[in-house]
Amino acid sequence: MSSLIEQVYLDSALTHIPESVVEGTTAWQSPSNIAVVKYWGKYDRQLPMNPSLSFTLSEARSETSLSWRRKKQTGISLQFAFEGKPNPAFGEKIELFLKSVEPFFPFLNHLHLSVESRNNFPHSSGIASSASSMSALVLCLLNVEQQFAEAKLNHEEFIRKASYFARLASGSASRSVFPYAAVWGTSKAVAGSSQEFAVPAEQFLHADFREMRDSILIVHSGTKSVSSRAGHALMENNPFAETRYALAHQNLERLTQAMMQGDLETFVQITEEEALQLHALMMTSRPSYLLIEPQTVSVIQAVRQFRREQHIPVCFTLDAGPNVHLLYPGKYADKLQEFIREQLLQYCADGRWIDDKAGSGPTRISY
């Protein structure tokens, strides 16, 4: 049974583009995001078991171009390259996604698509590369659709639709289309929140949080041993799942209040608890698995000691991987970057880290 918004998108689907138009190109860059209240566990068609809240990043991003030309045969036709080289595994995932949403974009049956994507950070290592890449791809699809649609969407409608379809490609991608912060999943703390798309959360941000910095320490740049898709599936039999979902609802309500009030102490507490709970769920899955590395633990211990000694509200968080995100208000950037260079680079693979911050969301790339 389709939802109301799904039915609206089906009813307004663009079936074809003008015969006079034979080819075109569009491109978008879209950022990754870092969740502070974690999404872990899903049901039905990419719907979250609990709400999540994330910061939209500025520098960690994907750039995706979509070129298309008319063809005579019908059916989804795709050529895909990642960072300049064919990548059959990624290409297969994208083709499966395009086939799954074909009823909403039936014009794709008459086009051959060439998609090229690249990241400026390691993929599949726990920095939400699917969030940035899939949101960029969906923005390209909607951009093509809007060129020829009779009824044009306003900006708010366009972004909501992008969030809806990005969710179908990768749950966390639903949040990447909004500036600064977003909430995905129904929560009584956030008016208009939905299971089907994310909503902006910029309104919850005190000045300290709007200028939040994220220093991403790349302690391991390789592909993680267990995918997020597999991790979500393992939540079905996790003995702590129901307790976790209840805690996530409580933490999101507490966190939105803390962020509006500029309560950095509560933010630090909840953010670190959420990160550790996420990895505890992995360790208690059946079968269990471990994604953090020894260097991850060393960074966490060093950060906590630094916070105690310097009285600076910096905290760590982790995505589904070993790399560590350090979150702190922008006014502490000089001290934190000195701390990173002097004490934390020894734990980073090839001394690599990304200096990032809350950002303004996706942008269309002009040729």
Task: Explain briefly what this protein structure is.
The protein has helices spanning 4-11, 88-100, 129-148, 155-169, 207-210, 228-234, 241-261, 264-283, 294-310, 333-344; strands at residues 23-37, 42-43, 47-48, 52-70, 77-82, 85-86, 111-119, 181-184, 198-200, 212-217, 315-318, 324-329, 353-357, 363-364.
Could you characterize the architecture of this molecule?
- This protein is an alpha+beta fold.
- The chain folds into two domains: 4-203, Ribosomal Protein S5, domain 2 (2-Layer Sandwich); 208-357, Alpha-Beta Plaits (2-Layer Sandwich), CATH 3.30.70.890.
- Helices cover 37% and strands 23% of the residues.
- The strands form three sheets. Strands 1, 4, 5, 6, 7, 8, 9 and 14 form an eight-stranded mixed β-sheet that branches. Strands 11-12-10-13 form a four-stranded antiparallel β-sheet.
- Helix 3 packs across helix 4 and helix 7 packs antiparallel against helix 8.
- The longest helix is centred in the C-terminal third of the chain and has 21 residues, at 241-261.
- The protein is globular.
